[in-house]
Design a protein that fits this description.
about 130 residues, single chain, elongated, mainly alpha, about 90% helix
């Protein structure tokens, strides 16, 4: 590892809360990707592997590239959470879908998960430059 990469790694270790939240979001989507691959849909796992590859490439390229990948990921997490919350509201108040899987994903537990990821995405987006600042 070069001196610049060691410095970046040291900055990440110094900001453990940020790295923990980032890790939780990435691991959650990796878990989801693997679980969907187990039932025959490989698109989510390919997507998260591509994101992880971007993180690795950005880490080794430069701080600016890594911050861009962080920004991209945080925006994706915020959008995913917002869309899930919006669909949950529509499902609850406008036209409920009677299917159990959809209700389980967009019910109270799903809304709380989406809200937690919304806060995590906003936290990552707001603090990404503090880690390398």
């Amino acid at each position: 590892m070069s001196a610049v990469q060691e410095r970046r790694f040291g900055m990440l270790v110094k900001h453990l809360r940020f790295v923990t939240i980032l890790g939780i979001t990435l691991l959650f989507f990796l878990y989801k990707g693997i679980s969907y691959a187990a039932i025959g849909s490989y698109v989510p796992v390919v997507f998260i592997v591509a994101i992880l590859a971007l993180f690795i490439a950005g880490f080794y390229k430069s701080e600016k590239a890594f911050i861009r990948v962080l920004s991209f990921w945080a925006i994706l997490v915020v959008l995913w959470s917002f869309v899930r919350l919006l669909l949950g509201i529509v499902n609850q108040f406008v036209k409920p879908i009677p299917e159990g899987h959809v209700h389980g994903q967009l019910g109270i537990a799903g809304s709380l998960l989406s809200l937690a990821f919304l806060f995590a995405g906003v936290y990552l987006l707001r603090n990404r430059k503090k880690v390398f600042g």
